[in-house]
Amino acid sequence: MEYRYTIIDADATSNLQLQHYLEDHGDFLCVDRSKDSREGINSILKFLPDLVFINLNDLAMDYFLMVSELHQYMNELPLIIGIAKSKEYAYHAIKNGFYDYWLMPYNELDIRKTLLRLKKQHPKEVSSHTICLKSYKDFQYLDTDEILYLQADNNATDFIMKDGSVISAFKTLKTFERSLPKNFIRIHQSYILNMDYVSRINYGKSICALKEGKKQLPFSKTYKENIDGLKKVLSRNAISTLK
Hints:
Layout: E1 3-8, H1 12-23, E2 28-34, H2 37-47, E3 51-55, H3 60-70, E4 79-84, H4 90-95, E5 100-103, H5 108-121, E6 130-135, E7 138-143, E8 147-153, E9 156-161, E10 166-169, H6 173-177, E11 184-188, E12 191-194, E13 198-202, E14 207-210, E15 216-218, H7 224-236
Parallel strand pairs: 1-2, 1-3, 3-4, 4-5
Antiparallel strand pairs: 6-7, 8-9, 8-12, 9-10, 11-12, 13-14, 14-15
Helix pairs in contact: 2-3
């Protein structure tokens, strides 16, 4: 499951910069962007995000009032991360229950630490067999049981479906690697496969054959540990002819 977030930031450059950092972590889906506190409160009440990023520069007090007002309408507020060029508003952020406070320019290590801590303290469990592919205002829902494998295509990813259709998403393979159910494993720089459709593992030729469409996918030495794990899973319920 993904963490849904909204950004409240009048600066388009820092807005896009933040989205870029979050995309590298997967598991985070931007549901809306706002320019000020008025748009922000409407966005939060409309989309009910898990996480809100607020650029506090210049209009900090308006945003703190917005957070106070949210308590009138919500039993539980989303986690809020304040962003500013200095520590000037840090005390107010703490008093208003912000989850964290980042200084600009963005620091990759600080972002990574916060997001890992967030995932540890507020884990999202995969509760369904559906994955949502979002492109601008288009939302497409795929049944993961119908996905044979995923294939990297430059900075996009192709989902190869059981019925033969191919659905493209404009995110990297790495983005989906963390959000898919446990029956999906990375076997190659370019491939993630659904182990439920594997019919053969050939270590000599370094390929996995699929039950559907007689497709053979290569696996690399880098992911041999995943292949060994796949073999163990498939062997549990198989009748072996080995002596």
